[in-house]
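Give me C-alpha cells for this 244-residue protein.
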Amino acid sequence: MSIFDESEVVAGHQRLATLVLDQHGALVACTNLIREGVQKSQGLQLKDKLARESWLAASHLVLRICNDAGASSVMIDRGYFLQAAAPLRSIAETAQLLLVFSDDPSHIESWRLLRGIDRYNRYGHGKLKSKLRTPDLRDKFDWFEERFDTFSEYGGHPSAASIMAHRDGNQLHIGPHVNEFLYTATYKDLASLVWHATDVCRLLWEASIDVPFQNLLTEERKLFLDAWPAIAPPNTATPKAGET
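Here you go.
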C-alpha cells in the first residue's frame, strides 16, 4: 500500500532500464557475492567462540550494504530520487567502518560490546580514519569519505542541494516522478559505490578468515570483477584482481 500511485513512474523507468543494464548487472554481481560469502562463511570452523561472534557481528554490517543497495534501487525505480540517495550515505559509512575492521579485526569485538556514547566516542564517524594503520586503506577511506559527504548533503540531510531532486524545469514535483537524468545518474553512483564497498567486504574476509576468499567463491568473484569495466568512469584503469 502506498500514499502515491507509483505505477506510471515505475512503467516510465522500465522504459529507461536499458540505459542502466550494466549498473544493474554490477549490483546483482555484488549483492550475490555478499550473500554467498556470508552464507558460506557460516559453515567454516573459526578458531574460537570469540572469532565466531565477531564475524557474526561484522557479517550483519556486510549484509547492511547488500540491503541498502536493494532499498536504494527500489526507490530509484519508483522515482524517489532524494530518498534513494540516503542509503548511499549509509553504504559509504559502513564501508569505512569495515575498513577499520579489515585493518585490525580486534576492533570488531570492542565495537560489538560498546554501547551508546561509549561506542560513539571510539567508533563514531569522525574517529575512524585515525585508527587506520595502512596508507592504502587510508586512501580507500578518503574515496568513501567523498561519497559520504556528497550523500550527506544530498540525501542524508535536509539541504539546498536536494532541490534538484524536486524540480524539473519550472515544475515542482510532489511525490515520485520520472526523470531520466536522475534515474541514470543515481544508478551509476549506486553501482560504483556498492562495487567498491563489496571489495572492502573481501578485505574483511581476508583479515578475519583463514580460508582464501577465491577458493570458496570462484564464480561469484569472477562475475564481480568482470562487472567493473562496464561501470567504471571514463579513463579509469581496471583494478587488479581484488583491488579497488
